[in-house]
Each structure stands twice: as C-alpha cells, then as structure tokens.
Design goal:
39 residues, 95% helix, 1 helix
C-alpha cells in the first residue's frame, strides 16, 4: 500500500513541477507579447 502512496505522491510532484514550468513559460511569452505591443 505504501508503494502506491509513494508513487502517487511522486506523480503529483512531477505534475506540479511541469505545471509550474508551463506557467513560467506562458508568463514569459505573455510578457514578451505585451512588451512587443507597448514598444
């Protein structure tokens, strides 16, 4: 049972990291687009 819990926690952590990276990348793109429009 504990192996399942560990696997689920590990998967959740990986998803969390990937989501964070996507948000950072999207944020950078948005900033670049806004910067491009304002200048």
């Amino acid at each position: 049972m504990s192996k399942v819990v560990t696997a689920v926690c590990a998967a959740a952590a990986v998803v969390n990291v990937i989501t964070t990276i996507i948000h950072i990348v999207n944020g950078e793109k948005s900033r670049a687009i806004i910067w491009g429009l304002t200048n």
